[in-house]
C-alpha cells in the first residue's frame, strides 16, 4: 500500500479507499461547478481536462509514495462524496505533509470535509508520519479555511504556492 494512504480506514459516515480510474465520471461534477475551482489559478478551463489532471496527479502520488487523495464514500450507500488525503508537498522549500480535501458540490455544508480532514489528522499523528500537518488554502477560500480551523489548525503564514496566494494552516501533534 502506498505510504500515507488511509485505505480501508473509516470515520463515522465515511469509508476511505484508493481512488480508481472508474471514479472519474463521479468526480466530474466537482469540476463542472465553477465554485469548486474559483479560487485556484492554473487549472485547465475544460472540466474534463481539469479532472484528468487531478486523477493523473493522484495516481502519480500513489506510484511515488507521495501520499494521495482517498476516495470518500458513504458507508450507508457507497456513493462517492469527494476525495481527501495526506499529501507530501514542498512549501517554501520545506517538505510538509498536507491534509487536502475536495468535496463534491451536492455534499457541501454537511460536515464531510471536516469529518474526513479530522480522520486524516488523527491517522497521521497515530502513525507517526509527522510532528505537524498543514493545509494549503487559497486566501479567498473561506469555506476551506473554516474546515481547517475547525480541525484545530491555526494560520501559520501566508505565501505563494503554485502561483496562487495561499494561507498555510498548521496543526502540531500533542
TrEMBL record:
SUPFAM superfamilies: Acyl-CoA N-acyltransferases (Nat)
InterPro entries named among the record's database cross-references: Acyl_CoA_acyltransferase (IPR016181), GNAT_dom (IPR000182), N-acetyltransferase (IPR051531)
Occurrences of domain N-acetyltransferase (ranges): 14-174
Molecular-function annotations in GO: acyltransferase activity, transferring groups other than amino-acyl groups
PANTHER family linked: GNAT FAMILY, PUTATIVE (AFU_ORTHOLOGUE AFUA_3G00765)-RELATED-RELATED, N-ACETYLTRANSFERASE DOMAIN-CONTAINING PROTEIN
Protein name: Protein N-acetyltransferase, RimJ/RimL family
Organism: Flagellimonas taeanensis
Amino acid at each position: 500500500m502506498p505510504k500515507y494512504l488511509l485505505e480501508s480506514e473509516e470515520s463515522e459516515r465515511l469509508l476511505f479507499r484508493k481512488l480508481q480510474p472508474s471514479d472519474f465520471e463521479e468526480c466530474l461534477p466537482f469540476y463542472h461547478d465553477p465554485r469548486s475551482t474559483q479560487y485556484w489559478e492554473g487549472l485547465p478551463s475544460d472540466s474534463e481536462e481539469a479532472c484528468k489532471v487531478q486523477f493523473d496527479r493522484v495516481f502519480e502520488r500513489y506510484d511515488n509514495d507521495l501520499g494521495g487523495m482517498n476516495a470518500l464514500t458513504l458507508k450507508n450507500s457507497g456513493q462517492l462524496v469527494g476525495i481527501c488525503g495526506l499529501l507530501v508537498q514542498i512549501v517554501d522549500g520545506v517538505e510538509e505533509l498536507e491534509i487536502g480535501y475536495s468535496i463534491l458540490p451536492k455534499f457541501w455544508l454537511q460536515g464531510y470535509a471536516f469529518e474526513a480532514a479530522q480522520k486524516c489528522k488523527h491517522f497521521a499523528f497515530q502513525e507517526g508520519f509527522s510532528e505537524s500537518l498543514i493545509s494549503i488554502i487559497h486566501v479567498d477560500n473561506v469555506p476551506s479555511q473554516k474546515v481547517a480551523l475547525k480541525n484545530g489548525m491555526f494560520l501559520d503564514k501566508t505565501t505563494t504556492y503554485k502561483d496562487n496566494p495561499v494561507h498555510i494552516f498548521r496543526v502540531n501533534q500533542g
